[in-house]
Amino acid sequence: MDTDESAGFSLDALRDRLAYQPLLLGGIALIAGTALTLASNATRAPIAAAEVHDTQMTLAQVLPPGSADNDLLADVLELPGPAAGSTRRIHIARKAGVVTGAVFNVAERGYSGEIRLLMAVDPAGKVLGVRVLKHTETPGLGDKIEIARNPWITSFDGKSLGEPAPEKWAVKKDGGIYDSFAGATITPRAVVKAVKGGLDYFATHRNEILGVQP
Questions:
Q1: Which stretches make up the FMN-binding domain (predicted)?
Q2: Tens digits of per-residue pLDDT, 129-155?
Q3: Which residues contact 111 (CB under 8 A, 6 or more apart)?
Q4: CB neighbourhood size of 206 (10 A)
Q5: Domain ranges of the chain
Q6: Which one-letter DSSP state was computed for residue 138?
Q7: Of all helices (H) and strands (E), which one includes residue 26?
Q8: Helix (H, G, I), strand (E, B) or coil at 210
Q9: pLDDT at 45 over 80
C-alpha cells in the first residue's frame, strides 16, 4: 500500500514538473526577446546616425571642396538603372542653386566578388572623383583600389568619354592608359569598366540629371 501511494505521488510530482518546465522556458524566452528588442531600439538611432555620417563623408570625398552647398542626402533623383527593372539613385550637387555634379553608385564583378564604387561627374561629363564603397578583393593585391592603400583610384579624376578615347578606357595590359597591379589585373580592369559604364550612363541621362529640357 505504501509502495502504491509512493508511486502515485512520484507520478503526480513528475507531471507537475513537466507542466512547469515549458512555462519556465517560455518565460525565459519572453524576457530574452524583450531585452533584445529594447537593445535593438536603443542602438537603432546611433547606427542610423553613423550610417548617415559615413554617407556624407563618402559623398564629400568624391566632390571638390566647396562645390556644393545643398543637402546631398536629400537632393536625390531616382532614374532607371542599368539592369531591367532596377533604379539608380543620383545625388545632385548644387552651388547657389546651380547643378555642379551628380554622384551615384556603379559596380562590376572583380576577382573575388562585386566591387561597388561611388563616383561623381560634373555637368560636362568629367569625373570629379571615385571611391570604393565595398569589395572583397585579395588583401595586398586587389585592395590597392582603396584610396587609403594606394592613390591609383585618383587616376580617373578629370577623365571623360572623350579623354581618353573610348578604346583607351582600359588597363595598359589591354591597350589602355590605366595601370594595373602585379598579380591583380582583373581588379583594376573591373574598376575601369565600372567607371566607364558610369560615364556612359551619365551621358545617356544627362538632360534628366541636369534638369535640362531636351
A1: 110-202
A2: 999 999 999 898 899 999 999 999 999
A3: 137, 138, 142, 184, 186, 187, 190
A4: 16
A5: 1-62, 76-210
A6: P
A7: helix 2-62
A8: helix
A9: no
